[in-house]
Amino acid sequence: MANELKNEPLLSEKIRRSLAEEIAAGSLRSGTQLDEQQVALRFGTSRTPAREALRQLAMDGLVVVRPRRGAVVAEMSIERLADMFEMSAEIEALCVRLATLRMRPLERVRLARMHENSASLVEAGDVSSYSSFNLAFHEAIYSATHNNYISEQALALRNRMAGFRRAQMFETQRMQHSFEEHRIIIEAVIRGDGDEAARAMRTHLMNAAGALERFTISQDNDQEIDET
Amino acid sequence: MANELKNEPLLSEKIRRSLAEEIAAGSLRSGTQLDEQQVALRFGTSRTPAREALRQLAMDGLVVVRPRRGAVVAEMSIERLADMFEMSAEIEALCVRLATLRMRPLERVRLARMHENSASLVEAGDVSSYSSFNLAFHEAIYSATHNNYISEQALALRNRMAGFRRAQMFETQRMQHSFEEHRIIIEAVIRGDGDEAARAMRTHLMNAAGALERFTISQDNDQEIDET
DNA sequence: CACAAACATTTTATATACAATTTCATCGAT
DNA sequence: ATCGATGAAATTGTATATAAAATGTTTGTG
Predict the structure, then answer these.
(1) CA–CA separation, A122 vs A184, rounded Å?
(2) Which element (helix H / strand E) includes B37?
(3) Do A148 and B3 touch (CB under 8 A)?
(4) Is A47 within 7 A of strand D by CB distance?
(5) Quick one: closest CA in B to A147, which residue?
């Protein structure tokens, strides 16, 4: 929706992305205090963009800001990550269910054709192209819900998760599995079976999450204990 | 869930709420330019809190900010509103489905008891108390998903929608219907029938939305045309 | 008269300065 | 010695100032 193409990025955006990466990668640990001054200093800016970045991260749930007491990195344990992936899976399932019920014939055809075209990418082992096809595929589903708000929110969630998916992304093997899972989804959609499409989508997303979890365990071996 | 109790509210918070109200009420029309200076002036503050408020509103989807071109009030037509209510309904449905599958016996009992206790409020016609019971009821369901992220996001969405619900809130008749709908949901939950609970929840929320739409039509009679 | 380039104006983005609140440590009293 | 109060340091919230874009207007040229 908004054009975030090449409008040379805002400083707050750069800081936000950078911090999001680090939190996703685990190099910024849960509970770490992030005071504005220090963040600003680290990125060579003034406090203003640093502050804005922290506020935005708070909206994504990556940090917690308490009204006059600064920001700390949010919990972000394995359980937390699993929760986020489940949310993501459920939202996508919801989308594909609605899409199945409301899709117009043209949209159905276009989605099917997208999938068919992606076969060549899988064969060629072109991970990068498949990755951007994958985004387009899911966006096509969002759009087919014919609910703009849901569509926007789903995309926003997907973007929030982007940092966490990066790790998992894409051994060629996973790519082939992804393609297969897409096929199952598409078939259910064409059949008009929304519930089955949703189920298949949930499976699809949870498989992707599984790949991540395997990856994450290695660096999270010394997780600290919840304080609540 | 951060403590937002009585920490005298931040200026940006006050501005945010005020603008959110006005957008929800329709007194700020779609497409209206909101430049920071002017907003700041209106609230007697500097540009800084005004700017932050606008950014937060953007995250809620109430305004759109384009990177160096300021903020405008988002579309917010009847269709848009319906979309938001549908999103809300689907999220709550999702929550109650998960909750049904994962709830612990104690949680089940507590939820049932909450519902039973609310009967007296309905009888007494105590709209205000019922309204806060209603929030607690839905929060109990979020919590029973045993997924913190989903729980937080669901609550956040509910808060975002609060301004739009205010209008609809509660002729005593609606309260009685709400109570009945809760009963149906609870029964499905206790039976362990997640899909039925989800269906009932969707209906519950969409009924509430219906009440709003009726209300909204009166003031939205001269909506402008989409530009997309 | 149409169109484009240069300039002026307006508005956002960032930096810095100031005020208010919280945090932490020191001090004193019980 | 423990607990609470007082005050200093640090940090956030807010205001203002400066820099950099974007928008709109004017002017000059084809």
Answers:
(1) 16
(2) helix B36-43
(3) no
(4) yes
(5) B83
Q: What is the CA A38 to C1' C16 distance in angstroms? A: 16
Q: Is the peptide bond before A170 cis (omega within 30 degrees of 0)?
A: yes
Hey, how many other C-beta atoms are within 10 angstroms of the C-beta on A95? 27
The angle that helices B127-144 and B105-124 make with each other, rounded to 10 degrees, is 170
Q: Which of residues 45-104 of A touch strand C (CB under 7 A)?
A: 45-49, 52, 68-69
Q: B68: Cβ under 7 Å from strand C?
A: yes
H-assigned helices in B125-193: 127-144, 148-168, 172-191
Q: Take residue B170 and report the two structure tokens written for it.
A: 């509660």
Contact flag, residue A6 CB and nucleic strand D, below 7 A: no
| B42/B27 Cα distance (integer angstroms) | 15
Amino acid at B186: I
Strand D: list positions under 7 Å from protein Cβ.
11-17, 21-23
Instruction: Quote the Cα angle for A208-A209-A211, to 5°.
Output: 70
Per-residue pLDDT of chain A (228 residues; tens, 9 = 90+): 333 334 568 999 999 999 999 998 889 999 999 999 999 999 999 999 999 999 999 988 899 999 999 999 998 888 888 999 999 999 999 999 999 999 999 999 999 999 999 999 999 999 889 989 999 999 999 999 999 999 999 998 998 888 888 665 557 788 899 999 999 999 999 999 999 999 999 999 998 876 566 555 544 444 443 333
Q: Which nucleotide comes closest to B68 if you measure CA to C1'?
A: C12
> How far apart are the C-alpha atoms of B84 and B18, rounded to whole Å?
20
Name the burial class of residue A49, with classes exposed (0-12), middle (13-18) and buried (19+) by CB atoms within 10 angstroms of its CB: buried
Query: Which is nearest to B100 in space by CA: B157, B63, B146, B153?
Result: B146
Q: Find how far residue A3's CA is from the centre of its chain.
A: 19
B70: which strand partners?
B66
